[in-house]
Design brief:
Layout: H1 3-26, H2 33-40, H3 44-50, H4 54-76, H5 85-97
């Protein structure tokens, strides 16, 4: 990976992290490119060099969120395969709600 590709990947990861924090703190409607660029110490245009648009960024945040939820929920029944299905469903539901 070239230095440019590394910087681009780092910026992308940082923007996702900052967007996740902003959405968690104040909701999706509060996410604005200018505010995000200020927090990331980059130009607004840099956001659009790593994401097609803000919707693309939000989809990335959502995708990572769903992946974390899936890992948590799936892990809740690991080692409990011998339990009845009803008990495993309860474990899954508790993990999801958590």
């Amino acid at each position: 990976m070239s230095k440019v590709e590394e910087r681009r990947a780092d910026l992308r990861a940082n923007l996702v992290k900052l967007a996740q924090a902003q959405i968690a703190a104040q909701g999706m409607a509060s996410l604005r490119a200018r505010d995000l660029a200020d927090k990331a110490c980059c130009a607004v245009g840099a956001i659009y060099n790593v994401f097609a648009d803000m919707t693309d960024l939000i989809l990335e945040v959502n995708g990572q969120t769903f992946a974390r939820i899936g890992a948590e929920v799936g892990g809740a029944v690991t080692g409990h395969e011998s339990l009845p299905a009803e008990c495993r469903l309860i474990l899954l539901a508790r993990a999801y709600l958590g």
